[in-house]
Each structure stands twice: as structure tokens, then as C-alpha cells.
Design a protein that fits this description.
By secondary structure, the protein is an all-alpha fold. It is about 75% helix and about 0% strand. The chain has seven helices and no strands. Helix 2 runs antiparallel to helix 3, helix 3 runs antiparallel to helix 4 and helix 4 runs parallel beside helix 7. It is globular.
Length: about 190
């Protein structure tokens, strides 16, 4: 008997996914579709709203992976703060509300090639890095608050601070751009 047939006959395996795995796949497809619409729409406000859907889908994926703390951080920080900051920046710079002819530079084939190459490189690096990594599910929940908090505040403090400075610079830049346009009209 082959390995695949043995796994399928023995219960859970590659050929007999669980409900959580099916939900993970369906939510992943919906999240990917929302991300594609985010970068292909010509309306900036709609792009920001589709970004909410894509980031919300990622939060659901974290919930399905039993990482509740990371899911709530995703909702509070990215869906709440970053998208509100993005919409605030759009309002400050007086971006067009409807279709924007400036939203398409005509470099779609080059952008698609770069996106596919970047995605392939990212998948290759992640698969290569975690090829022999196995999670022992008997030790406890990997996405618990204690484990995630320890990892975040021990190893990831500097990237989070750098991101906060970057977001602050974007907000200040939006204010400066809106002030220059207001002064030019006078």
C-alpha cells in the first residue's frame, strides 16, 4: 500500500483535510483575492477598504492557527490604526475620491513580473528555511500570549519601533503636502 493511500485510510492526512484546514484554504483564497483587488483598483478609497478586507482575512487566518493574540494585534494595529492612517493621509492630501487616472502608470506587465518574482523568492526562502522544522503540538499552544509576547518584545522591538517612526513620517509628509497645496492656492 502506498504512503498516500495509507494516510488517507488511517484518518487525518494530506488527502483527508480537517474542517479547519478547509476553512484556512478558503479564507486564504478570499484574502488573496482582496489583496489583488487592493492593488488593481483605480479608486484609492476603495483600495484602502479592500485593504481592510485583506488584513481582516489575515486576522482570521491567525485565529485558525490558534494565535489569538496575534489575530487581535492584527485587527487593532493594522486594520484599525494603519488603515485609518491611510484614509487620513488620503483626506489630508485631497486625493481624488472617484476613479483616478494617475493611479495607473502603465507599467502593469513589469509590476506583475516583479510581483511574481518576489513571491517566488519569498516562498522559496520560507520553504527552505522551515523545511525540517516541526512543531510539537503536545507542548502547548504556540500562538499563546506568553510565547508571542516573549518573542515580540525580545526579538522584534526594533522593527516595531522603526515601523512606528515610518508611519509618523508618512503622517507628517501628508500634512506637509497638504500645507504646500493650500499655500499655492493663495
Amino acid at each position: 500500500m502506498s504512503t498516500a493511500v495509507h494516510l488517507a485510510a488511517g484518518g487525518h492526512g494530506f488527502l483527508s483535510p480537517t474542517g479547519v484546514e478547509i476553512a484556512f484554504l478558503l479564507v486564504g483564497i478570499a484574502t488573496f483575492a482582496a489583496a489583488v483587488v487592493t492593488v488593481t483598483t483605480k479608486q484609492l478609497v476603495h483600495a484602502a477598504l479592500w485593504l481592510v478586507v485583506a488584513l481582516g482575512g489575515l486576522a482570521v487566518e491567525y485565529l485558525l492557527l490558534t494565535a489569538e493574540f496575534i489575530a487581535w494585534v492584527q485587527v487593532l494595529i493594522y486594520v484599525g490604526s494603519v488603515v485609518v492612517l491611510l484614509l487620513f493621509g488620503l483626506m489630508l492630501t485631497k486625493a481624488p475620491i472617484g476613479r483616478s487616472p494617475d493611479a495607473d502608470s502603465g507599467n502593469r506587465p513589469a509590476a506583475l513580473a516583479v510581483a511574481v518574482a518576489s513571491a517566488a523568492a519569498l516562498v522559496w526562502v520560507v520553504v527552505d528555511a522551515f523545511r525540517a522544522t516541526w512543531i510539537d503540538l503536545d507542548k502547548g499552544v504556540q500562538g499563546s500570549t506568553a510565547v508571542s509576547g516573549t518573542s515580540l518584545f525580545r526579538y522584534w522591538v526594533l522593527p516595531f519601533e522603526a515601523l512606528s517612526v515610518l508611519l509618523l513620517a508618512a503622517l507628517v509628509g501628508a500634512i506637509v503636502l497638504s500645507r504646500k497645496k493650500a499655500e499655492e492656492k493663495r
